[in-house]
């Protein structure tokens, strides 16, 4: 759950004013989302 909440927080900060969540996810792309999730999981293990 921590990884998902970290991704959600990053997405909130990355969204442009008036941009939908779906548009932001599309703009960021799966690689950026996966990297954010991976970083959250790595921090969790330390």
Walk me through what this model shows:
There is one protein chain. The chain is an all-alpha fold. It is built from 2 helices and no strands. Helix 1 crosses helix 2. The longest helix has 25 residues. The relative contact order is 0.21. The chain has one domain.
What is the element layout, followed by pairings?
Elements lengths: L1 H13 L6 H25 L1
Helix content: over 70%
How many structural domains?
Answer: 1
Question: Can you count the helices?
Answer: 2
Poorly predicted runs: none
Give the overall silhouette: elongated
**Helix/strand order, N-terminal first:** HH
- Average predicted confidence as pLDDT: 88
Q: What's the β-strand tally?
A: 0
Structural class: mainly alpha
- N-to-C span: 16 Å
Radius of gyration over all CA atoms, rounded: 11 Å
Largest sheet: none
Strand percentage: under 5%
Compact description:
By secondary structure, this protein is mostly helical. Helix content is 83%, strand content 0%.
Structural descriptors:
83% helix; single chain; mainly alpha; 2 helices; 46 residues
């Amino acid at each position: 759950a921590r990884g998902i909440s970290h991704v959600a927080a990053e997405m909130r900060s990355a969204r442009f004013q008036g941009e939908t969540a779906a548009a932001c996810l599309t703009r960021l792309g799966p690689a950026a989302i996966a990297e954010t999730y991976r970083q959250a999981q790595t921090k969790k293990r330390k």
